[in-house]
Amino acid sequence: MFDPYGDLPDEHLLAPAPLVRTPVDDGVVLYDWLRKQAGDGVWEEIVTEMYAQAATVPMVASYFGGVDLPELQRHFLAALVMVTGRGMTVGTVRRMAQAHTPVLNEAGDRITGAAYDAVVATLAGILLARGVPQETLGEVGALVGPLRQVIVVGE
């Protein structure tokens, strides 16, 4: 497994949680802001919507064959809650690398950059539709940046 962080401890923070800046507050963590705007179940709704949309993109859907989708969604929700609430740590990157190493599409190929980018774009579109400001989406993009180098391998 590729580990770009060498001896850094799992707790080492690579990127803080994205913030939503409002006229009355100079920064609310995205996880909390969206729950306040849309209710406690909003993150579960986002995950469900993301997988429904991703399943319509053939190159992404080809990775879901034979997968326990409810279990996959639970893991994605946990990761999403963690990174939007606390930020991206070295340990999160390591766990995501380990989880994605065995993932292959129907043709037996590892996750491609195009497939990864399509998933991130889908998530960004859903967050934008939920009212997340563009500035915060930029922070989300920076937050998931370290994941690309360990999930997309061999390109």
Condensed summary:
The chain has 155 residues and is mostly helical.
Strand order within the widest beta sheet: 1-4
- End-to-end Cα distance: 15 Å
CATH class: Mainly Alpha
How many domains, as an integer? 1
The name of the CATH superfamily reads Globins
Mean pLDDT: 91
Characterization of this structure:
By secondary structure, the chain is mainly α. The protein is about 55% helix and about 10% strand. A two-stranded antiparallel ribbon has the order 1-4. The chain has a two-stranded antiparallel ribbon with strand order 2-3. The protein is globular, with a radius of gyration of 16 Å.
Layout of helices and strands:
Elements: E1 13-16, E2 19-22, E3 25-29, H1 30-38, H2 42-54, H3 58-61, H4 69-85, E4 87-89, H5 90-100, H6 113-129, H7 134-151
Helix pairs in contact: 2-4, 2-6, 5-7, 6-7
Descriptive terms for the model:
single chain; 155 residues; mainly alpha; Globin-like; two-stranded antiparallel ribbon
